[in-house]
Specification:
alpha+beta; Beta-Lactamase; disordered N terminus; about 270 residues; six-stranded antiparallel β-sheet
């Protein structure tokens, strides 16, 4: 039965790396993580690039306005072109637009940090929408944050509804870092429970003292595309409260899934 449920998907065709593109993306990500502008030598050393090569790429990125350079300090930072691209993506990201009112309400009524997540295979998940509660609880997450696809409550749903083979799942699982690690067999049982119940709960495993509840947003084929996540202090979210919250989130996830599946032009 498990073999049928978790049959491996057909392998995607291999994509040949384009070094210049890979290096340019690495530079953009580095600048995005850096709290301050960086000089070309610092960038080159951080990414193990030849300085002259790094400079050529930076000049091309500056020409495209994806990176800006201070003419005095000769230090580089992300440019306004990145903001324009981000706005374009967010403007078309119907999931983020559809789910934001739901997240705001969940955060307000349940006093949790409510998160809308896009799942991208087994590589990573990315936060597309976010709403924080008014209570003094802070989770280090923001729109655009990326996490390993199998981590925390969403990770259990990725394993349950992603259509991936257990061999590949186990390989990725063993590379994860948890504050309170789980044994793979125990985690797999939780994945199976999540599939059966339609939601998953991470109790203090990923982050000490924090409970996360996640529900899947599935496409027409029953494949996971997004999740809704609620995070709060473990003492706040006992078992009964988690179950009630999960049920409400499941209803909202089903509504969002139906709206996402609506043909173009229909009201949403």
């Amino acid at each position: 039965m498990l073999t049928a449920l978790y049959a491996p998907v057909r392998a995607a065709p291999r994509i040949r790396a384009v070094p210049a593109v890979t290096r340019a993306v690495a530079i953009l990500r580095l600048l995005g993580r850096s709290p301050e502008p960086l000089g070309v030598k610092a960038i080159a050393q951080s990414l193990d690039l030849v300085t002259s090569t790094c400079l050529h790429i930076l000049r091309a990125l500056v020409a495209e306005e994806l990176v800006k350079v201070d003419p005095v300090t000769k230090r580089y930072a992300l440019g306004m072109g990145m903001l324009l691209l981000a706005r374009s993506v967010l403007g078309r990201a119907s999931f983020a637009n559809l789910v934001q009112p739901t997240l705001d309400r969940l955060a307000r009524e349940w006093e949790v940090t409510a998160i809308g997540v896009e799942v991208g295979g087994l590589d990573h998940m990315i936060v597309l929408a976010l709403s924080r509660s008014s209570i003094p609880f802070s989770l280090h997450v923001d729109v655009g944050s990326r996490f390993p696809a199998l981590i925390s409550a969403t990770g259990r749903l990725t394993a349950a509804f992603g259509g991936h083979s257990w061999k590949e799942i186990e390989k990725r699982f063993r590379a994860l870092r948890w504050q309170r690690p789980l044994d793979f067999d125990a985690w797999r049982k939780e994945v199976e429970t999540a599939r059966r119940r339609g939601y998953s709960i991470d109790r203090r495993n990923y982050i000490a003292g924090v409970t996360l509840v996640a529900v899947p947003v599935l496409d027409a084929g029953g494949r996971l595309t997004h999740t809704l996540v609620a995070a709060g202090m473990a003492e706040q979210l006992d078992n009964a409260r988690c179950q009630a919250l999960a049920q409400e989130m499941r209803n909202e996830a089903a509504r969002v899934a139906a709206l996402l599946a609506a043909p173009a032009g229909e009201p949403r």
